[in-house]
Design goal:
5 strands, DNA polymerase, domain 1, Ubiquitin-like (UB roll), 9 helices, about 260 residues, 3 domains, three-stranded mixed sheet, about 50% helix
Length: about 260
Amino acid sequence: MAQLTRRTKQSTGFVRMMTIARQHPGLMIAGAIVAVLALSALLLGFCSARGETFSIERSGVGSSAGEIGSNAEGIEGGDGTGAEASGRGENGGGGGTGSISDEHSAGGASEAQLVIDVDGAVVAPGVVEVPAGSRVADAIEAAGGLAEDADVSGINRAAPLVDGEKVYVPRVGEAAPAPAGASSASDGDEQSISPVNINTASLSELDELPGIGPATAQAIIDDREENGPFASIEDIMRVSGIGEKKFGNLAPYICV
């Protein structure tokens, strides 16, 4: 009889709870949430007591997030697998980066530089470095550019450069240098040429002088026949068409 009475009370209590749940569904949901949280807390405490961890995976996460989660589980599990895999990944990545760096370094080393001595009428005379394939104008620019009294009429600024070459920019009134880029053998040949005697030179010999054409060569011959031989090389400036600038280019190649 006592058991029947107890069961009747339990049934009545259950019915009363169901009635309350129907009337107040929010209370039922809140109770379910509290129960889930309590169960999670118990499970977390049990795992922590055993020195284990767990992770909750969410659906819809991309493959990259899944890989990160698996690496984290390996590290937290203490078996060393995740750490080893991560270490291998880092080493592999480092190797790849090193290879790329080596390639860039090799590329930079293979980019040849020309060492050029720039002198004369430039802003900052001295030894400069320019990339392979540069021209005389590039070397002049590397030396600060042309000075105010520079005379570039006798130099070829478009001539290609060679390593170890000397570029000289004459000043106004100076003789023009040998063409940039000329070989040492040709320089030696030019230096070995004897100056032309302007008092005895023929028309063809005068015509070969720098800046002297057939007409000017004939004018030189006519002048020395009419006015007598030239007493000095400066006297050639009495010939029409030969001024100080042209004389400066002629001076190294003539004599009396």
